[in-house]
Amino acid sequence: MHQNQRTPVVRLENLSRTYRSGHGVVHALDAVSVDFDRGSFTAVMGPSGSGKSTLLQCAAGLDRPTSGRVVLDDVDLGELSENALTALRRDRIGFVFQSFNLLGALTAAQNVGLPLRLAGRRPGRTEVHAALARVGLDGRTGHLPSEMSGGQQQRVAIARALITRPQVLFADEPTGALDSATGRDVLTLLRTLVDEEGQSTIMVTHDPVAASCADRVVFLADGRIADALDRPTSQQVAERMTRLEPVAAGGTAP
Ligand code: ADP
Ligand code: MG
């Protein structure tokens, strides 16, 4: 349909993002280059403050990098006007947050249909129900977020992110607000969407068990790519992480 299977679905080239702060400049991302495979599940791991959310937001066109390029499929996001970027985010990108971000006054079905409304389309009943069925929630269409568990709310958020059939699903700590059993169910769902529908997925996490569900784990430290592991176990991820954590004051580097 779009590009062949071998081209990356997202390519970050020499990406830097700095923030001005009171004391000077923070290098949230420092010349990051990485390719994310099409039809694949990639986890981005790293200590708190290592730049994971900044990377995801730049890759998804929610934030503009200070320098470098983000190429999504065949599109260089830096060359898009604000309007074109908004349209691309709406049509080609799905984003799931730790805190679900559902609208509390809308039912599950209304939340799921929202991206279509924003695109000027009236969501079809069948379409919305199919999206909820994909995340295992066909019986909950009329429920408000307050009437659902955290895991169910995150499933609604995933259905909402996928209803436009985006090229890439981005998720920032999607299990961070869930207990571990519910979090596992959400990870299983993400894994199934990749395996059965070829949904390209990029997930930020700091949980080695969550990361071990991915095909590839990319490690960030201090705004730079530190390593990448293919199909690691959670033990391998945890072991790699211990060598990324900033050394405590007075400690010695390995
Ligand atoms: P992570 O998601 O890995 O915890 P972030 O991408 O949120 O890391 O942040 C990376 C660095 O950039 C941190 O030092 C953080 O304090 C800084 N940072 C992030 N957002 C902002 C902002 N809006 N203003 C200033 N500094 C920021
Ligand atoms: Mg973060």
What's the helix and strand layout?
Blueprint: E1 10-21, E2 24-36, E3 41-45, H1 52-59, E4 67-72, E5 75-76, H2 82-92, E6 93-96, H3 108-118, H4 125-134, H5 150-162, E7 168-172, H6 180-197, E8 200-204, H7 208-211, E9 216-221, E10 224-230, H8 234-242
Parallel strand pairs: 3-8, 3-9, 6-7, 7-8
Antiparallel strand pairs: 1-2, 1-4, 4-5, 9-10
Helix pairs in contact: 3-4, 3-5, 4-5, 5-6
Bound molecules: adenosine-5'-diphosphate (ADP) and magnesium ion.
What key attributes describe this structure?
single chain, four-stranded antiparallel sheet, binds magnesium ion, 254 residues, alpha/beta, Rossmann fold, six-stranded mixed sheet, 33% helix
Give a description of the structure.
The strands form 2 sheets. A 6-stranded mixed β-sheet has the order 6-7-8-3-9-10, sandwiched between helices. The chain has a domain at 8-99 and 168-248: P-loop containing nucleotide triphosphate hydrolases (Rossmann fold, 3-Layer(aba) Sandwich), CATH 3.40.50. It has 254 residues and is of the alpha/beta class. It has helices spanning 52-59, 82-92, 108-118, 125-134, 150-162, 180-197, 208-211, 234-242, and strands at residues 10-21, 24-36, 41-45, 67-72, 75-76, 93-96, 168-172, 200-204, 216-221, 224-230. It contains 8 helices and 10 strands. The protein binds adenosine-5'-diphosphate and magnesium ion.
